[in-house]
Amino acid sequence: MELIAQSFIKEVFDFKAGKSCGLQLKAKYYDEIHFPPSDVQLLGQWFEYKATGQTTREGTCPIPIRNKPKALTIKQKAEGQKPNIGALSKKFEDVLTHIEPMNKMFEAYGLEIVETGKRIIHNGLRGDIDVVCKYKDSGEIVFVDIKTSGLLDDKWSEYGWNTDALEYKDRLMIQVVQYKLLGVAEYGYEPDFLFFLFSNTNTVDRKAIKIVVDETRFNEHVKTVEDVRKLSAYYEQNGWTPHPEPKRCGKCPLAKECDHFTDIPKIITVNY
Questions:
Q1: Do 103 and 84 touch, CB atoms closer than 8 A?
Q2: d(Cα 203, Cα 183) in Å, to the nearest integer?
Q3: CA 42 → CA 7, 37, 203, distances in Å?
Q4: CA–CA distance, 43 with 92 (Å, rounded to integer)
Q5: How far apart are the first and last CA of the chain?
Q6: How far apart are CA 50 and CA 119, in angstroms?
Q7: DSSP label at 24?
Q8: Residue 106, C-beta contacts closer than 8 angstroms, at least 6 positions apart
Q9: What is the C-alpha to C-alpha distance for residues 182 and 79, in angstroms, rounded to an integer?
Q10: Maximal CA-CA distance, the chain
Q11: Residue 1 has what pLDDT?
């Protein structure tokens, strides 16, 4: 793996802990096989696309989930009317109501959008920045990452955004550290980093969070990247171990040709 993305770091450690499949990891990051997003991921991609024009990592436009269209009447068919397109599902329609408030946020915080979907590569690291902005008063660069979530106030989930617990959530914060390191290499100084968070369960809840990273975190991240390089080099040579389980295998694009596919769960022993 020549270029290390923050998502790859997380997947390698998940794989080491038996929480992800090595064959899927290899397919995603080495063979560049596209894995379909979950409904939650698709909703986030749809919102970013409509809000900023940013396409997916594969360069495609997200296709939203729609309700079943109404069937054409006999008369409509006879008139040659084209089949109806179903209305957007409620979640996909509701999330679009955040776009106008988001634009107001950029204005209120004195941010001018410079570029969207910018890829930065330095020192073997890769980052894809949702929105690169600059402060209107100083001209300094600011990274803005846009996310939709149903966990804006959740304290206990590893993906929850309660600010009292956020400093302990490495899965969310590793992105910030990597992107700031890339920012220093790209611009010669450390850009500010903001999360713009929008609820995917209602149309009014949103947050803006500025992340300040301690210097020790940068040093730890550099060490983490080196550990990931060593781990990935080992598995490249010795093979990525499959970790099949029904949910993981169910939507895997490798399923039809995979000798390890399973739809039978393992028995889990619980001591009481």
A1: no
A2: 32
A3: 17, 6, 18
A4: 6
A5: 44
A6: 20
A7: H
A8: 112, 113, 133, 144
A9: 58
A10: 71
A11: 64
**CA gap 134, 267 in Å, rounded:** 53
Q: Which residues make beta-bridge pairs with 126?
A: 5, 121
- CA–CA separation, 205 and 60 (whole Å): 28
For the chain, how many residues are written? 272
Q: Which single residue is written with the structure tokens 């999360």?
A: 195
pLDDT at residue 78 tops 80: no
Residue pair 173/166 in contact (Cβ under 8 Å)? The answer is yes
What tokens were used for 21?
């499949």
Name the residue among 143, 120, 108 with its Cα closest to residue 213: 143
The sign one gets for the Cα dihedral 245, 38, 4, 195 is: negative
Give the three-class secondary structure for 41.
helix
In one-letter notation, the amino acid at residue 30 is Y
d(CA 35, CA 26): 12
Residue 76's H or E segment, with its range, is: helix 74-78
The DSSP bridge partners found for residue 209 are 195
> CA-CA-CA-CA torsion for 221, 227, 231, 232, nearest 10 degrees?
50
Q: In angstroms, how far is CA 73 from the centroid of its own chain?
A: 42
| pLDDT per position as a tens digit, 135-184 | 999 999 999 999 999 999 999 999 999 999 999 999 999 999 999 999 99
**Tokens encoding 150:** 């149903």
Token readout for 77 is 């068919």
SS3 56: coil
CA distance 123 to 167: 26
Give the integer Cα–Cα distance in Å for 154 and 205: 13
